[in-house]
Amino acid sequence: MSRKRAIWLTIGGVLVVVLMAGLAIFQPWLLFVDKEVDEGDDAGAVVGTASGGLTDTAVPSADGAGETRVVLASAEFIDAEHGTTGTAVIYRRSDGSRSLRIEDLDTSNGPDLHVWLTDRPSGGDCDGCRGSWGIYDDGAYVELGALKGNQGSQNYEIPDDADLAPMRSVVIWCDRFNVAFGTAAIG
Questions:
Q1: How many C-beta atoms surround the C-beta of residue 139 within 10 A?
Q2: What is the CATH number of the domain that holds 47?
Q3: What value, to the nearest 5°, has the Cα angle with vertex 83 and ends 153 and 102?
Q4: Contact 162, 55 (CB under 8 A)
Q5: Beta-bridge mates of residue 146
Q6: How many structural domains are present in the chain?
Q7: Where are its TM segments located (predicted)?
Q8: In terms of domains, do 23 and 56 share one?
């Protein structure tokens, strides 16, 4: 084998390895594949909106309604790095547990997407300037789990020990690239 041919084979091998690594990291096919989810809403009847917001602990009972829940916060998603629409609603159930329901979500699919509650404001920190959508892991946050689908309605339990007092937004967060896909102001 000639020296020139060996160099070209080596370059070709390196390019194949780089291409494969790039595909594994970026997963570009996810931009063309939607994952739809349609989880049913909680069975507890909504009996009102909490006057104290996220820190309200009172849950009024509804006579004969069985399990009840109140809305602690509700907000529409806004775009971040990707176009995102839908509604985020945080509930407190009559048993004291809390949950997040994301309704009618529509965002881009991506690698390693998660749902967070964070102390950072919805909409970034500098009106869309460079780096504005990467701030959500700079402060306090509560990870609720992997995003179940980039389209549809889904539910997430909020841990009992999670302090919601400082939380200001719900974030669809891409752990792989440390950016928000969309945010909703809850506090």
A1: 12
A2: 2.60.40
A3: 20
A4: no
A5: 114
A6: 2
A7: 6-26
A8: no
The number of beta carbons lying within 10 Å of the beta carbon of residue 126 is 10
- Answer yes or no: do 18 and 92 share one domain: no
pLDDT digit string, tens, across residues 14-57: 776 666 666 566 666 666 678 899 999 988 888 888 888 898 88
Q: 31 φ, ψ to 5°? A: -65, -20
Angle at alpha carbon of residue 97, lines to 73 and 67, rounded to 5°: 95
DSSP-derived secondary structure for 124-143? -SSTT-TTGGGGGGSS-EEE
7 alpha carbon, distance to own chain's centre: 47
- Residues 75, 95, single domain; the answer is yes
User: Quick check: 99 and 155 in contact, CB under 8 A?
Assistant: yes
Q: Please check whether residue 95 is in contact with residue 115, taking contact to mean a CB–CB distance below 8 angstroms.
A: no
Residue 87: which domain range? 37-185
Distance CA 118, CA 139 (A): 7
Pseudo-torsion of CA 21, 24, 26, 31, nearest 10°?
A: 140
Please tell me whether residues 117 and 157 are part of one structural domain: yes
pLDDT tens digits along 126-164:
655 556 777 888 889 999 999 999 999 999 999 999 999
Based on the domain organization, do 27 and 53 belong to the same domain? Answer: no
Q: Could you tell me what percentage of the chain is helix, strand and coil, using 3-state DSSP and rounding each to the nearest 5?
A: 20, 40, 40
